[in-house]
Amino acid sequence: FVSEFETWRAEEEKRTVSMFRKLRGDRATNNGSSTTLVCCREGQANILKNRKRSLKSQGSRKIGHICTSHMIVNKLMQPENKIYVKYVKTHYGHKPEVQHINLSQADKVNIAKKLVVGVSEERIICNALSSKNEIAPSRLDTLNKKVISNIRNEFGIGILGGRRHKNEMMRVDLWIAEEKEKENPCVKYYKRYDEEDLEIGFSKDDFCLVIITKEQSDFLEKYGHSVICVDSSHGLGGTDRTIQLSTALVIDEYGEGIPVAYMCCNKIDHFAFEKMFLCMKESYGININCKYFMSDMADALYTAWKNVMGEAGIRLLCSWHVLQAWSRNYSKVKGNTDEERKEKVKCLRLKLRSLLFEADLNTFERKYKEFEEELSLPQFKEFKEYWMERYAHRLSEWAFCYRQDMPVSNNMHLESMLKVIKYFHFDGRKVRRLDESIIGIFKYLEQWFANKRRLYL
């Protein structure tokens, strides 16, 4: 009978756009108990004088006086086993307003079920709005992402198979402990906060996690002899928001980038990358002798690779990073007036792009000779010093005419992977929790390798 009463009560609250709460605890009677339910709108709002948070835009749900609507529920035990309800329907002092009632438990359960099977938040909100009834408004009419996020927290949905702990780093620890118990654990190295690893150079303030799955090891063994691309992306998440995701990719026979190792670390130096490459070496079994090694402009990456694997056949600089580095140094160009300086920077940018993307070697050599003559002008003195120090002796590493038969020219494979993770597995939002970032990476790997297996069938 209790479940039947709760069902009737939920339907009545939905029909009248209201919500009832207990006035006090149950009172014992001769043959059962009695409960008084009053309208949630009655009573005084308890607003602190030194309140820091702003009031809700719709204001408090409390109306400042008593509402006449209430229920007196008498539960009779043996031998009757019945529930008698005295119900006053008429409300006083307020209108039926959906913004002042809570989402029903049944609606929460329905939303939680959709989240469990993978329905996106946008689809849930869209379905709720499309079923909007103008005659009988519902709390679902005001559904938003914040409400869905609260439901995720309440039911423990969506993070590492369900939230195991309120603390972000504790959830990561629990997940890693479970992963290490598996037959082929993907965690190759883990250094948490508040611990030291002086052998590598990590202090208590550093965090590092290296992930290489069994499938990634197989692809590293198959394609690691050709091209290795390594790069880092900023703002992965974590307690201090400084953890970066570093990824090593190989290129398959279809020209598609395959991630073969991940490192989540707040330090991007040769010590951290040496640990990542050591994990790759242990996973592969021997040194990885790649023909081409592509990275950004920092020497820390290639220095770490040489220390662990030895010299690569040919080192390449990512064209996107090269263009970005040049743009940051155009300020070294001088001019008598601001307009003259802007014009010289514009011409310099066009000439450098022409040099970078020139495919014919003879044409490149002719253009480069003209470019060197122009750098002799006094307006380019500072830029010439920068150029001679960084690029003049590394033409084969950045010019396209030297990489005509090479399978890769930039790190767009990595950029594509990061976009897929963000827009398909993070729903386009910026993730600030490390545990959510890790599960997003694994969702991407699971989907990617599933598609790859179908391709090879």
UniProtKB/TrEMBL annotation:
Protein name: Uncharacterized protein
Record-linked InterPro entries: RegFact_GeneExpr_CellDeath (IPR052797)
Lineage summary: Eukaryota, Metazoa, Ecdysozoa, Arthropoda, Hexapoda
